[in-house]
From TrEMBL, chain A:
Taxonomic path: Eukaryota, Sar, Alveolata, Ciliophora, Postciliodesmatophora
Similarity comment: Belongs to the ALG14 family.
Alphabetically ordered keywords of this record: Endoplasmic reticulum, Membrane, Transmembrane, Transmembrane helix
GO cellular component, one term: UDP-N-acetylglucosamine transferase complex
GO MF annotation terms: N-acetylglucosaminyldiphosphodolichol N-acetylglucosaminyltransferase activity
Pfam families reported in the protein's UniProt record: Alg14 (PF08660)
Protein name (database record): UDP-N-acetylglucosamine transferase subunit ALG14
One of the GO BP terms on file: dolichol-linked oligosaccharide biosynthetic process
Source domain of life: Eukaryota
UniProtKB/TrEMBL annotation, chain B:
Record keywords: Endoplasmic reticulum, Glycosyltransferase, Transferase
Family: Belongs to the glycosyltransferase 28 family.
Major enzyme class: transferase
GO molecular function, one term: N-acetylglucosaminyldiphosphodolichol N-acetylglucosaminyltransferase activity
Record's keyword annotation contains Signal: no
Subcellular location: Endoplasmic reticulum
Lineage: Eukaryota, Sar, Alveolata, Ciliophora, Postciliodesmatophora
Origin: domain of life: Eukaryota
Official protein name in the record: UDP-N-acetylglucosamine transferase subunit ALG13
Domain (Glycosyl transferase family 28 C-terminal): residue spans on this chain: 3-142
Amino acid sequence: MGIWGYLAILIGLWYLVKFLWPPAKRKNILVVLGSGGHTTEMTTYLKKLDFSLVENVDFICAEDDKVSKEKFRLHFLNRGRLYEIFRSRKVGQSYISSVFTTLYSFIPAIFLVLKLRPDLIVTNGPGTALPVCYSGFILRLLRISRTKIVFIESFCRVRTLSLAGRLIYPITEQFYVQWEYLQRDNPKCRYIGLLV
Amino acid sequence: MSVFVTVGTTKFEELIKAIDTDEVLEALRDQGLTKVLCQIGNGEFTPESEFFRFSPSLDEFMENADLIISHAGAGSILEALRKNKKLIVVVNQKLMDNHQLEIAKELSDRNHLIMCENPDELSSAVRKLETAEIKPLPPSNTQELMQEIVDLLN
């Protein structure tokens, strides 16, 4: 089988994916809940969201993230569904092994994003944000979804971006920061004052 | 008037010990702060003043205080400043979390709070309250953020 054969299979697969998981008709936001203080900040932002303006909101967090699950239960139980996925990097894990677990965590992330087909992924890192955002980006490149990515950097990051922020920065539609220094050093950042 | 001291989810023995010294208590009394309540976490040292270990929410304690003395945790700092309370932040050198230090330093440079690099400096920080011009934290713009996100969606 030559290159045309493979190409035909790929195109077939592409149609199959689009057919098996048709895009949602309604506008979809996927919120990635990070961990600890990140989830607290995300909760603060979402309390100001008028949920009546958004047709559907889904939440995602790491399977072992008790804080995020509790915050979801307290504040957003009636607002949407919570999906749990494999954690990409545990606190204290070495960088080398975290490279492998992050790669591995792409598998459940890409299937979930494929299923949800979010129009917008909103995250402030870290945890599962990396595989989820890159899955959204890849599916957008493949024209399977229309996913745009919004990253909101923590109020704690005054002069340097977080690791998750730096990694996701290149694929964001909008990247919010809360201190003007960051906008000066990273031209794509948007600063509209404090957000917490 | 009353002071609320908080160490967050672990412990900060040096801070609670510093609160318990005559030097700091006197500095507080000179400011009219006679009632002291400490949240001490799982620290071993227990102060002479009133204390408790943990509480699901510190909201009420912060609300009732005229001055808050806190560890450098971003969550506590934010909670206190959003209640427009006078705030002294004491850095725990043992933890050396640079980002927490960074945010405390920035807010201190902008006169939103008084920062102590060391519990030994606590009494002088309390005395600074008299003359320091503490400015309230600018309001948050979360409403606009959420509006922009909804606009991006549609």
